[in-house]
Amino acid sequence: MYSLDTTTTLRLVQITDTHLNGPEDGHLLGMKTLHSMNCVLDIVRSEQPRMDAILVSGDLAQDGSVRAYQHLHQALQPFACPVFWFEGNHDNPDNLQQVAAGTEHLQRVIRTPHWQLILLNSQVIGSVHGHLAADQLQLLEHTLQERPDLHTLVSFHHHPLSMGSRWIDTIGLHNADELLAIVRRHTNVRCVLWGHVHQESDQIIDGVRYLSTPSTCVQFMPGSDDFAIDTLAPGYRWLDLHPDGRVDTGVSRVEDIAFDIDYSVKGY
């Protein structure tokens, strides 16, 4: 468990699906992912003079190499706040853990006087879809029961709700029903946050905010039955978690920069 001393509003920044490679010019669908991530981090610097933590919500690497995780660690080191990572379907957990060793990156429960963040691993090794294993569901249930007085944000990589896109919805969280049953049982869950879908969404269901966030590289076309790339720019999400449980949030995207994308590719 990791403690943050923030007694007022907790300001988080989420970046996701960085898809970094070992080579600095490595790309996804034609877009150089280290360059696009650095462009996003430039706008984070300009827009967020104060942050309490940064979440990096999976698919940190495209090739799973040690060097890719080193790129991420080095790019985020200058920020004066803790940075928390967790796995996506493209990640190599051994290499990720090697680079994160000795840092706060892999802490799973973060607490403040008013909030707790529960960060789960939805990766299924060798598969694109997600699944929360029994130990992850137990961690969620236990942590929620342990501190029912704390407002809670739950985050993992794969989407637990339909995105209205046939191809994306086949590779979401396959046991989302188990997750959502736990969320319904605990009145302290205020927000569920994920990556994976490379697009922005925002829903409120039974008083809980459900959010997805753009990638720092290529975006996927919302509502598409088949794999399709969107023309929107890379971006990030900011969240203000207020002491009374309210959640304010928004998305910012890179502007006035052209990125190379190969729209002919039919998968990632």
Automatic annotation (TrEMBL):
Residues 10-199 form the Calcineurin-like phosphoesterase domain. Belongs to the cyclic nucleotide phosphodiesterase class-III family. Pfam families: Metallophos. Signal peptide: none annotated. This is 3',5'-cyclic-AMP phosphodiesterase. It is an enzyme of class 3 (hydrolase). InterPro entries: Calcineurin-like_PHP (IPR004843), CNP_phosphodiesterase-III (IPR050884), GpdQ/CpdA-like (IPR026575), Metallo-depent_PP-like (IPR029052). CDD domains: MPP_GpdQ. Keywords: Hydrolase, Iron, Metal-binding. Its EC number is 3.1.4.53. GO terms for molecular function: 3',5'-cyclic-AMP phosphodiesterase activity; metal ion binding.
